[in-house]
Amino acid sequence: MKTANLLLFFLITSLLYGQIGPKHFEFLDYVKATENLKPLKYGAKWAEINEYKVLSGSLEENIKVDTTIKIEGQITGLLTISKSKTFNYGKSFITRKYNSSTMELDQTNLVECDNMGRVVKISKNHADKDLVMFDECITFSYDEKNRFSRATRATCDTCALSIIKFTYRDDEDIDKVSMGLGGMGTLEVSSVEMPGLVCFEQKYEFTSDDSDPMIKMMMERSKNELNTFQRETIGDNYLYTYSYVLNSNRKFDPYMKEIRDKSFKLLEMEKLSEGKTEISVKYSYNQNGDIAKTEITRGGETSIYENTYDDRGRPLIQYTPDGNKSIYKYDEKGNWTSLYNYSDPNTLSTITFRKISY
């Protein structure tokens, strides 16, 4: 899982450059992932995580291999690249990241949960006080139907807040999204009913002095370019088409299509280039709502990957749309203790070990 505050940062910066569409929906998927963040289970007090990068083939000169182990019959050299610790703190938890070279504390994150187990606040603090401007505090709010409704990001006590808000339609689909652009203005995305489909339009409103080069660039791009998406009803599902639009000729150039069900679960994805399909992905789910199978078609060839889970719903083997594979191992109390990541189904790339104290 990506670090929460980095993902939100990338979301906001991508929106600054006009890339609405998928990023808008990825944020919803991110919120669902955030809700799944949990403290350590079954009375665990803390966990120490060491991640290693696999060095395949011959080793480069001057690279020190810290250890060598045998995994699934493959002798593998490992190089330490990161280390962190996680501590339980009531319903919340603390993560600490250490410098891979000096092992000194680099960053502390506090993830706070409410009584329902939902993540309501993430605080990031750097040990190096010269980086205080990069400290962050992100708060999350939910509406009466337990849907994500608002996130607020602050990078310092005196910095302008970045706020994103969601409102919903009667059919549970999104009606409007509004986002602050770091004190430079606002971005609003609204749904517009049209015969047989729903289009989403974006509107920028800049409040800062347009003599700022960044503001001038954003204003020019928002005037001449538009990334937008539309929704069509297909049986019990929705088809979302993401398009790049040049305002000069209003020509829609689709670059991605998605089919999602009414609960917003992704069923199919198709990436386009100049009107041709580059890659398509289909997802199947088990009765617990977890991805059970992924079918990836690229260049006319289809690869099928099946995720597996144990009887407690924990992931054992998981695949991503680019064919990466992850294998999880657990201790007798149900906490994962090792994670093996493959850059393709047969090439081991990183190994993460987690030592847990009870």
Question: Which features does this protein show?
Answer:
mainly beta
Describe the structure.
The protein is mainly beta. 11% of the residues lie in helices and 56% in strands. It has 3 helices and 24 strands. It has a 24-stranded antiparallel β-sheet that branches. Residues 1-28 and 57-63 have low confidence and may be disordered.
* Quaternary status: single chain
Helix-and-strand structural type: mainly beta
> Which H/E pattern describes the elements?
HHEEEEEEEEEEEEHEEEEEEEEEEEE
**What is the overall number of helices?**
3
Low-pLDDT parts are 1-28, 57-63
What profile does the largest beta sheet have? 24 strands, antiparallel
Can you give the helix content as a percent range? 10-25%
The CA-CA distance between the termini, in Å, is 24 Å
Please give the radius of gyration in angstroms.
22 Å
Shape: globular
Strand content: over 45%
Count of extended strands: 24
- What would the average pLDDT be, to the nearest integer? 75
Strands, helices and their partners?
Elements: H1 4-16, H2 22-35, E1 46-55, E2 67-71, E3 74-89, E4 92-98, E5 105-113, E6 119-126, E7 136-142, E8 148-154, E9 162-168, E10 174-180, E11 185-194, E12 197-206, H3 213-224, E13 225-234, E14 237-246, E15 251-261, E16 266-273, E17 276-285, E18 291-298, E19 301-306, E20 308-309, E21 315-319, E22 325-330, E23 336-344, E24 347-357
Antiparallel strand pairs: 1-3, 1-24, 2-3, 3-4, 4-5, 5-6, 6-7, 7-8, 8-9, 9-10, 10-11, 11-12, 12-13, 13-14, 14-15, 15-16, 16-17, 17-18, 18-19, 20-21, 21-22, 22-23, 23-24
Helix pairs in contact: 1-2
